Backbone:
């Protein structure tokens, strides 16, 4: 992501959209920060973050400022790693209800082979708006169209440039709860059988690609989709399974008896707390909504706002993401989800998270779930220089970022919402119509 | 006072004039269509009665009174279901009452959500319980949301315990131009809708402009399929409604028409128009239409472009019920901005934070905090106490209940939330909630939290475990 090409394209984009040019500093030191690393540890005062070559060199209290570094004095402000949305569809839709702009779902001859990467629009306004809210990376999943398998998701950055992809084909996405049963013909029994047979056919394909007949009557997968599931069944690619209920979670965990190499990630897991010890023992990461506390469907009858707290307590690696809608737009509410986890620690009978644990669920935990914990998601040395400076506690809804860096590049915090705000700061028209105020 | 009497009083307060409804009662002669209903003017009367409360003093809290005032180290005295006294630390109180030490905590009037579908789009969201849109005709002023409400919706309990919501307006959906009557509820569990119904609250009429009606009916090959079609059907309907209302007011015989009854009540100022409308230009059209036919819009709901016409809303005395930060999910929401609420407020118009969502209603205080912060960052200096009007007196006014709730004034309903910190903080939750002076939620008492029939005996158990 670094290098001249990246910077040049960033400048090209920014020249079109903002007045302030971005200058990539070779070395930046943010000093005097109330600093949170994102690894689960609690914030420290008077912390320093050093970024060089687009990566974090060091972060913590008592970190030395290298000679020649550009110094940004945080003056006590909060500094965190950029927020990583553990589940989203950002960049796949500009206006979700306007179908021409919505690339989240397809009715297509293909399923597992679909790859969202070429559909990501780095210039989508929701990317800029999310960036302004402190979100720097996102897991982007396709939505299931025809069939259980939706295709291959990506991890992206939200920088103001044309190179959004952090990792393409980062995981395969499959529906296996109520939605999966519907996609498979109407029952969970059919769904499990369909899933198993599809994976067996992928194994058949792997053994002898030339003799795999995707057009035969028994074929559940065409050749392209069968090929796409090979890395899933061999464990080379994680499989993100969307399930909500306790029983469906156990069904998914049991699939590893037949397919031991599966690298499972559970998305949803509203009832995860009921089977948290089993999830923890299986060492399967969970990406969940965080604030889902209503039995909004029959697969969420055990919904509780203590779900995240209880799973973390049981040793599950929990991330939070946009599992309950607005997944293309509202990634910035991650801080609200996290703050509410902290609020629960003051509610009698509820289980919440410490501040540092809560930050982890929206930074390093989703990075690690994607197998990218060594590259993004925290301010530990060697991670991407994704840093946000906030004008207050990031979990307070009255707070907002004052500076955002992605790969060490300071980002514009202007978007069409801020432009509309400025135009209509006074709704009265002047000598000329509003259209002349820009 | 009877329910009907209260309704008339409310209507008179709202309209500022004596009403034909009262005049008809004065004739002491029921219309022929009236049967054996106990209250012919109000055939589905509230059976809500305040639950037992004990005289209680909250002492030492920071109080936001809901009308913009802040009292530090305040005293609030609740008795007989009412706010009996409010003031500073020297406020006199009787000796023999329960005193709660609220130092370091905050006290506000209960949150009022002017836009909810709890009960008519309940959890679980299955087709069998989906009762919010009578999407079979664009003009359905004859349907009443109260007849769709399922009191066992678990969402009511979450709104109480997590959101401090004490009063809420349940609306029909927005598929139709004229969606039907809304109903205002007290957020208390009950076996029946009537057991929740806010006594004497005026009805609302849900209207919708924009994409939804034209999409729903255009896709069926019916009118309206355009925005001009929306307006045309609206205007044709108002023409009929005015004819009906004139005949009714004159006491002339005509076939009783449920939908026209509702619209005639709107034209007489007894039912408040709650108008779903996103775009600034469409709101301007609706304002002109309301003048053309002689009615008033109480509030535009979901008005993501209210900030573009905040002056127009102010000049016409129309509230804007808004989200904190929703935007962009459909074309008419594309220009939503976080500063919408503070910009409307600064222009001198009436801003309201609403939810339209079973999750959002649990955190309306946090939605207000988003708006407050966004406003302050652009130099709009609004105090916390003033911002609480967005959740209290402003929605109460737009719902016609401001004389009874929506602020902590002596004599008003004791609808009160004790928060365990500043309610604009994400880290804050309700500690106790009173409705009409009865303690209906106590975070320290696991039994003082409602569990609906639907959740009783289920594995989740109503999130009380």
Residues:
């Amino acid at each position: 992501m670094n290098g001249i090409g990246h910077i040049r394209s960033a400048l090209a984009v920014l020249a079109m959209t903002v007045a302030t040019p971005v200058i990539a500093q070779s070395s930046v030191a943010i000093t005097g920060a109330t600093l949170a690393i994102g690894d689960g540890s609690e914030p420290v005062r008077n912390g320093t973050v050093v970024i060089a070559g687009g990566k974090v060199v060091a972060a913590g209290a008592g970190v030395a400022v290298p000679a020649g570094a550009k110094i940004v004095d945080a003056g006590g402000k909060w500094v965190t790693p950029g927020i990583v949305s553990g589940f989203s569809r950002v960049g796949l839709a500009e206006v979700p209800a306007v179908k021409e702009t919505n690339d989240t779902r397809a009715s297509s001859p293909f399923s597992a082979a679909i790859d969202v990467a070429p559909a990501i629009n780095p210039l989508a306004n929701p990317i800029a708006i999310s960036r302004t809210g402190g979100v720097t990376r996102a897991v982007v999943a396709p939505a299931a169209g025809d069939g259980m398998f939706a295709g291959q998701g990506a991890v992206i950055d939200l920088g103001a440039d044309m190179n959004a992809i952090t990792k393409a084909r980062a995981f395969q996405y499959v529906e296996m709860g109520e939605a999966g049963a519907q996609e498979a013909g109407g029952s969970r029994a059919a769904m499990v059988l369909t899933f198993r047979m599809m994976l067996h056919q992928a194994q058949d394909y792997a053994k002898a690609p030339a003799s795999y007949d995707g057009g035969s009557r028994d074929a559940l997968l065409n050749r392209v989709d069968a090929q796409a599931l090979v890395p899933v069944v061999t464990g080379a690619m994680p499989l993100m399974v969307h399930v909500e209920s306790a029983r469906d979670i156990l069904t998914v965990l049991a699939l590893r008896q037949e397919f031991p190499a599966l690298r499972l990630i559970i998305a949803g897991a509203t009832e995860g707390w009921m089977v948290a010890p089993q999830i923890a023992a299986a060492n399967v990461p969970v990406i969940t909504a965080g604030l889902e506390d209503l039995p909004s469907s029959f697969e969420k009858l055990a919904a509780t706002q203590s779900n995240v707290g209880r799973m973390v307590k049981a040793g599950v690696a929990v991330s939070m993401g946009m599992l309950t809608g607005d997944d293309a737009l509202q990634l910035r509410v991650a801080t609200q989800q996290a703050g509410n986890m902290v609020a629960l620690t003051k509610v009698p009978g509820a289980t919440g998270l410490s501040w540092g644990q809560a930050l982890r669920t929206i930074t390093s935990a989703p990075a690690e779930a994607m197998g990218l914990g060594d590259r993004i998601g925290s301010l530990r040395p060697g991670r991407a220089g994704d840093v946000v400076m906030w004008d207050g506690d990031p979990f307070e809804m009255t707070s907002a970022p004052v500076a955002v860096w992605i790969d060490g590049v300071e980002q514009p915090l202007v978007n069409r919402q801020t432009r509309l705000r400025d135009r209509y700061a006074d709704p009265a028209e002047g000598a000329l119509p509003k259209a002349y105020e820009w | 006072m009877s329910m009907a009497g209260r309704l008339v009083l409310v209507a008179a307060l709202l309209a500022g004039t004596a009403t034909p409804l009262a005049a008809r009662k004065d004739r002491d002669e029921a219309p022929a269509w009236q049967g054996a209903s106990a209250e012919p003017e109000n055939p589905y009367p509230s059976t809500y009665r305040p639950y037992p409360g004990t005289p209680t003093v909250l002492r030492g809290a920071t109080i936001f009174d809901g009308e913009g005032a802040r009292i530090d180290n305040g005293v609030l005295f609740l008795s007989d279901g009412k706010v009996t006294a409010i003031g500073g630390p020297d406020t006199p109180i009787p000796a023999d009452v329960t005193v709660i030490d609220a130092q370091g905590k905050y006290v506000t009037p209960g949150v009022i959500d002017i836009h909810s579908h709890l009960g008519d789009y309940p959890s679980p969201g299955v087709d069998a319980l989906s009762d919010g849109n009578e999407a079979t005709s664009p003009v359905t002023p004859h349907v009443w949301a109260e007849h769709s409400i399922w009191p066992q919706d678990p969402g009511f309990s979450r709104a109480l315990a997590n959101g401090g919501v004490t009063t809420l307006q349940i609306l029909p959906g927005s598929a139709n131009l004229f969606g039907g009557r809304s109903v205002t509820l007290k957020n208390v569990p009950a076996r029946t809708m009537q057991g929740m119904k806010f006594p004497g609250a005026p009805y609302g009429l849900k209207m919708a402009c924009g994409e939804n009606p034209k999409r729903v009916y255009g896709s069926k090959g019916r009118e309206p399929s355009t925005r001009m079609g929306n307006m045309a059907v609206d205007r044709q309907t108002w023409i009929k409604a005015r004819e009906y209302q004139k005949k009714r007011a004159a006491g002339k015989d005509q076939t009783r028409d449920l939908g026209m009854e509702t619209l005639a009540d709107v034209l007489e100022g007894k039912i408040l128009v709650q108008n779903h409308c996103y775009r600034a230009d469409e709101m301007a059209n609706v304002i002109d239409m309301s003048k053309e036919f002689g009615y008033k819009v109480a509030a535009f709901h979901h008005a993501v472009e209210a900030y573009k016409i905040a002056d127009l809303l102010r000049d016409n005395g129309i509230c804007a019920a808004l989200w904190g930060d929703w935007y962009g999910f459909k074309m008419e929401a594309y220009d939503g901005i976080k500063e919408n609420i503070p910009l409307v407020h600064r222009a001198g118009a009436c801003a309201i934070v609403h939810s339209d969502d079973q999750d959002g209603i649990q955190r309306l205080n946090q939605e207000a905090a988003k708006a407050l912060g966004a406003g302050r960052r652009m130099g709009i200096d609004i105090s916390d106490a003033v911002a609480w009007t967005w959740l209290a007196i402003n929605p109460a006014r737009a719902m016609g209940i401001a004389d009874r709730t929506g602020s902590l004034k002596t004599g008003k309903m004791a609808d009160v939330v004790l928060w365990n910190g500043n309610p604009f903080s994400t880290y804050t939750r309700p500690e106790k909630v009173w409705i009409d002076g009865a303690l209906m939620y106590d975070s320290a008492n696991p039994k003082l939290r409602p569990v609906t029939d639907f959740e009783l005996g289920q594995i989740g158990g109503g999130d009380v475990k």
Summary: Chain A is about 25% helix and 20% strand. The two ends of chain A are 32 Å apart (CA to CA). Chain A has two domains: 3-80+400-424, 83-376.
